[in-house]
Structures are given as C-alpha cells and as structure tokens.
Amino acid sequence: MLVTLRALAASALMAAVTLAAPGAQAQDKVVFATNWKAQAAHGGFYQALVDGGYRKAGLEVTIQQGGPQVNNRPLLAAGKIQFLMTGNLLHPFDNVKNGVPTVAVAAIFQKDPQALIAHPGQGYERFADLARAPVVLLAKDGQFTWWQWLKVQHGFRDEQLKPYNFNLSPFLANKSAVQQGYSVAEPIYIENQGKFKPVVHLLADHGFSTYSTLIETRAETVRTNPDLVRRFVDASIRGWYGYLYGDRKAANALMLKENPELTENEIERSVALMKQQGIVDSGEALERGIGAMNEARVRDFHDKMVKAGLYKPGEVDLKKVATYEFVNRSVGRELRR
User: Which CATH superfamily hosts domain 2-110+210-335?
Assistant: First the structure.
C-alpha cells in the first residue's frame, strides 16, 4: 500500500497536509520503502510526512510499506525506489559482499530492537540462562544471521532451534520456550494474548552492536545528488524528534489507516518502550543527533560477524558500507524535550 501526499490531501484527517500550491517550486518525488507494515518503529518517517517536514525540504515523499509477502530490497538496486529502510548492518554488509551498489546514510536506531523473550518464573531472568532453554523459536532469517553470533559468543546450540512463523501460540503454550521478537512489539502482543509480562533480553545489551533502522540509498545517488540525500535524511531525523517528543497523533492516525491490525494503545506502548530502552535517542545520538553513525562501531560489529563465521576476513569493504557525511551534525536536537 502506498502513502502519498496526494492521498493525504484528499483525507479530511490529514487536511492540514497539502501539496504545494499551483505555481510553487516543483517537489522532488521520492519513494521510501520500509521493511514491514506501518508500526511505531516507523513513526518518525510518517511524522515527517504528515507534519510537512518532507514537503518543506522540497520533497514529495511516498512511503511504501513492506510486509510478510513484500520484499522491497531489490527495488533499491534496480532504481525503482530512492531510499530503503534496512533492518541492521548485515544487509549493507551483504550488499557490498555481493557487489550491490547501495550505501547506508543514516542509522535511526542506536540499538537493534531484536530480543529473546521468555516466560517469567522459568529461570530465564539472566541472559546467560537462555543458552540452556530446551526450545528457541527463531525465523529463518535469524537462524542464518544473529543465531550464529549467539552460538559463538554465548554458547547457544542448534539443538535448541525450532521454527518461528510469527505466531505466538507455540511460545504461549510452552513455558520453557524462548522466542525471538522485536523488543518494542512482541512483548506487547504477548501481554495482550497471554495476560502476562514476559522476560525480555535485548541482544544489543549483550554485544550485538549493530545499528538498526538504517536508511539506505544507491551509491550513485550519493555521488550525483547528495543534496537530495541530505534533505531526505535531515527531514527524517526531524520527523523522529517530532514523533518521540511532539504531537504524534496525526502520524499514528495515518499508520492506523495503513495498517488496520494496529491499535492506538499498541502504538503508544511501543513508543514508551523505544524511549525506555534507548532504541532511538541514546548513545552517540545524544550528542550527535538521531541518525548518528561512526566508522569504529561499524567495524566492531563487522569483526564480530567475521568471528561468528558470517563473513570471511576482507570479504566486505567497509568503506562501501556507509557514508557519514549526512549525519553526526546534531540536526533536530533542539526539538528534544
């Protein structure tokens, strides 16, 4: 489903967000694709759309949702979209390894929300205890990526693995099971369905040092149109400050329209968890602004993944993974409240 400014202008709910008047300077059309359905973890981008931040930056932005049956990743390399929201650094690592000419230009999340979740009262209150769980429910993508790091770094074993198909029922039915989850989403769904508060261990707090919710674009775009990249990144960053610390009602309303499976309560609880866990505005972002990245941290995470066996030494040219020219400038920090 596509969200465009024209659609917003036609909606009474978004009446305040209109296209530029006839005769105004033309806006650069941009398609930004996400990696899942609209949710609080995308909120800052929707905020920049509904509060006019993108429009003020001279951009007519379309947000193109991802989802379980949607893969937006190939569209970036093919030039069908201008920007892509990427889960974590493993994706740009893979692109560089495979010769796909894309580059990360901002890291909206300082912490990856990937987590392992357990039932309370089962002896899993410490992260180290999870390695003895008889069952760990993981989706295929996790099994071939960060599970390898968990085995090398924390002693997990393949014998524990069971498939996770984004259905909570197997976990809810087995108190000794552990499952993967987004720390700002699945715990809420578990509370809603299971009527208990789960134990949540954020991988980022135990050495999984990747950035997350990266903005990627084509390397060619960075070379030939850096002004477009800067305007999109700056407007997105300001949108995230506005979403976290300002009035996010209109952004929430648009996400609810785009993803009817959401509820207002779930969105607000998710925002509270993002703040509590320091997902967006923590670490480097406190001084350098949301979106901050640095080369040393990218290298540190890469070296951990080499040790885990995901890449061979020298296989990924880290100079091609990310550019730091569009971040670390404290854009939007004055909006923090």
Answer: Periplasmic binding protein-like II (3.40.190.10)
> How many other C-beta atoms can be found within 10 angstroms of the C-beta atom of residue 205?
13
Pull the structure tokens for residue 300: 């540190």
Give the SS3 label for residue 30: strand
CB 61 within 8 A of CB 83: no
Q: What is the C-alpha separation between 9 and 13, in angstroms, rounded?
A: 9
Residue closest to 252 by CA, chosen among 19, 42, 18, 28: 42
Task: Tell me the DSSP string of 126-141.
Answer: SGGGGGG-SEEEE-HH
DSSP at 328: S
Identify how many contiguous H helices and E strands the chain contains and give both numbers.
15, 11
Per-residue model confidence (pLDDT) at position 181:
95
Residues 169 and 177 sit within 8 Å (Cβ to Cβ): no
Whole-model pTM? 0.90
